[in-house]
Each structure stands twice: as C-alpha cells, then as structure tokens.
Amino acid sequence: MTSNAELKNGNDKFQVDSKYRGLESNVWIELNSLNDVLGNCVNLGQGFPDFQPAPAIVAELEKVCRSDPNLYAFHQYARAYGHPRLVKALAALYGKLLDRSIDPMNEVLVTGGAYGALFYTIMANVGAGDEVIIIEPYFDCYEPMVLLAGGTPRYIALKPDAVNSSASSASWCLDMDELGKLFNSKTKAIILNTPNNPLGKMFSREELTAIADLCKKFNVLVISDEVYEWLVYDHNSHIRIASLPGMWERTVTIGSAGKTFSLTGWKLGWAYGPHHLIRNLQIAHQNCTYMCQTPEQEAVAAALEVEIGRLGTEQSHFQKLTKELVGKRDEMVKAIRDAGMVPVVPQGGYFILVDWTPIESTVDLESETDQCEDIRFVKWLAKKKQLLGIPPSAFYSAEHKHFARNYIRFNFYKKTETLEKAKEILKLLQAPNQK
Ligand code: PMP
Ligand code: GLN
C-alpha cells in the first residue's frame, strides 16, 4: 500500500494542474493571513465594511428564512439563470438606467458574486489565441481568469498627469494612441472597471466613447465591471458603456449585491447584456455551479424593487451610501495629507491610493524581503505600526509592478471608531518635515 507521505511527495499526478501553475499566490489570502497572525491591526485592507448593512435588507433575508412551511421553496434550488423575482428587478432597474427594454429571462444572469460573472464572461468568450486588453491598475482576478481561459492579456496602464496633494483619480489617464496600438485582429475583449478598484477613477464620457469606437472598429467585446456603480462622489456621474451608441450589442456589464448593499459575504452578483452574449455565460454557468443561493436572491430582489421606486430621491439607499462614504473619504484624505503623504482622491469606489514615499526615510524597508517595495512597505506598516493596507502591485502585470512602487491602498468604508484608530496611526507616521 502507498503511504500518505509517498502520495504527497514527488507525486506528479497530485500536483496542481499546469493551468493553475503560476497562480499559487493571492494577495487577499496572503494579507488576510498576515492580519490573522498579527491579530492587532487596524484593518483597512480587503474591501468590506466593518458594521451591519442596512436593516431593511437583512430583514428581507430574515423574512425568507422564517420557519414557515409556506416558504419551503426559498430553501430549494432556484431557476438556474436567476430567481425570477431577482432577474425581473435587475431588468427593470437597468432597463430604466439604460432607457431600453431588457429581457429578464434572457438578458440577465445571476452569479456567485461579480467574481462568478467575470469568470463566466471570460471563460465563455475567450479562448486560445485571443488577446484581452486589461487596463492597469486592475482588479487582480482579471489576469488569472484570462490565462485560465487560454487567452493572452495585453496591458495598458493609466498614468497620472499630475502628482500633487490635490490630485484626483481623474488625472490618471489612458494614452489613446497606446491603446489604439493594442487593438488588432486577435483582440477579443477589453476589460473595463469604472469606478476603478484600486484607483477610484471614473472613466469620462469622452474616454468611454474613444474606447467604444475602437471596440466597434475591431469588433471587440467589452467586459464592463461596474460593481462600484453606486459609489460615486462629487459631481461625477457613472456612465455605463453599454448605454453608448452601438455598444449594448457588444457589452457584458457586471454588478454585485455585495457592493450595492454592503454585504460582501452574501456573494451574489450578476451580468446583463444582449441575449447572444448572456447565452454564452448561461452555458458556462449551467456547467459550473448551475445556480445561486435562493434566499439571498429573494431578499436582494425585494430590496431592489424598493430602490427602483426611490432612484434619485433622498430616500434612495444609494444616495445615503454615497453621502456616508464621501464623508469617510474626506476624513481619510485629510488625515493622509496631515501626515505628509499624498492621496489620490478617488472619484468613486471605496478605496484610496496613497503615495507613502514622503515618509520613506522613516521606514525600514530592509526589514522585509519581498521584491516589490510597496509590499515591503505594507508589511512593515502592518507589523510595526499595526495598520493594514493592500500593496497595489497586485493590480499590475509583472512587467508593470514598478508603477505601484510608491503606493498603498486603503479601504475607507469602515466605522468611525476604526477610522479614528487609523488616523491616530497616520499621525504618528508624519513625515519628518511635517513634525
Ligand atoms: N470587481 C471588482 C472591481 C471588485 O473590487 C470586486 C471585489 N469585490 C469584485 C469584482 C468581486 O465582487 P464580488 O464580491 O461580488 O464577487
Ligand atoms: N474587492 C475586494 C477588494 O478589492 C475584495 C477582494 C477579495 O476579497 N478577493 O478589496
């Protein structure tokens, strides 16, 4: 008989399959483990609020989960492509926002978080030989998903045209000539994320129109990750690329209940678009998890129905969310500036990039061994100052990780008490010339 040790050691058949090789490390796993080990950090790392979501949506889930024989069906499988009440609510919501009729049964798919929607969109549309354009900095899972599908990622980085303490994410721009050069006959798709994680950049109508024109010219699919669609500050407005002329037909738009209602642990997301594209996702979905959690779908549907009626009013959950978040953003911006560091003020989303190099002389980067300096800084800050952030090099391809060198990402969607603790730490980090 073969021993366990023999089975484990040197047994090629039991190694992870080649398609996953090179994908062993993951920034969220690594940083959350560091946080667990340290046990005492103020956690501004992974993006989630550290307080209860709106009571109304939690009440909807409680309603569904009551022990009542009449509600038995909510504990059983739902329709594979999405619980009818939820797909109807999503079709009504986006139909209103895009000013078009959306077929709930054929043009909407409910998925396991936005991750699920991204995975299906990429797996079902990208194959060997296809190139996919990814705009840096990008939510880290895009790259491995494209590689798993057999595609080739082609990267282009947003670059700041101003680096100063009042600069906003709007100053990070795409070089349109450089973008144009990436498009060719092998280009299958471009992945867009607006508002962007980690930068908070919101693409303007002019930028989206230029991207759309290239996609139409080269017959390219747009995968539009809009999970932060409701987290929009100042006078910015979220523009859905699917709403631009001729773009509905070539766009899959992705959303997340986790971001929409601040309950990331529910892991419910969706994709919408024309039937000929959503059909591809349906095929991937029915051959993977097949369907998503019924009780949560019912609760999210009920909450969305209420919000559709309140869109644009003071009662809107989305307006309240934005109001609450912009205050938190401004508090963090001030604390970062007071500490002598340079924030990139986000137009949307709930993350802020900070240039920490003004305090570099006070940091012992040699105490860490990682190749990327931003990772060393993040680890030093967590271990020595008990403040956890995320190294933005995770959002860049191998050849462009140096663009992230000077930055750390903080999540500011935290309760006042947590932000106060973070501000105390930032105060102690103050740059030498600020003291
Ligand atoms: N896209 C972006 C840009 C994100 O920041 C995240 C993180 N939540 C996701 C997709 C995945 O969302 P979900 O938690 O709904 O899977
Ligand atoms: N989207 C969240 C973030 O950027 C969480 C990502 C994750 O947990 N994988 O922090």
Task: Sum up the structure in keywords.
435 residues, binds glutamine, Aspartate Aminotransferase, domain 2, 14 strands, alpha/beta, seven-stranded mixed β-sheet, 2 domains, Aspartate Aminotransferase, domain 1
Structural commentary:
By secondary structure, the protein is of the alpha/beta class. The chain has two domains: 15-53 and 317-434, Alpha-Beta Complex (Aspartate Aminotransferase, domain 1), CATH 3.90.1150.10; 55-310, Type I PLP-dependent aspartate aminotransferase-like (Major domain) (Aspartate Aminotransferase, domain 2). It is 38% helix and 14% strand. The protein contains 14 helices and 14 strands. It has a seven-stranded mixed sheet with strand order 2-10-9-8-7-3-4, with helices on both faces. The chain has a three-stranded antiparallel sheet with strand order 11-12-14. The mean pLDDT is 96. Bound molecules: 4'-deoxy-4'-aminopyridoxal-5'-phosphate (PMP) and glutamine. Glutamine (GLN) binds next to loops. 4'-deoxy-4'-aminopyridoxal-5'-phosphate is lined by residues 113-115, 139, 193, 197, 225, 227, 256, 258, 264, 269.
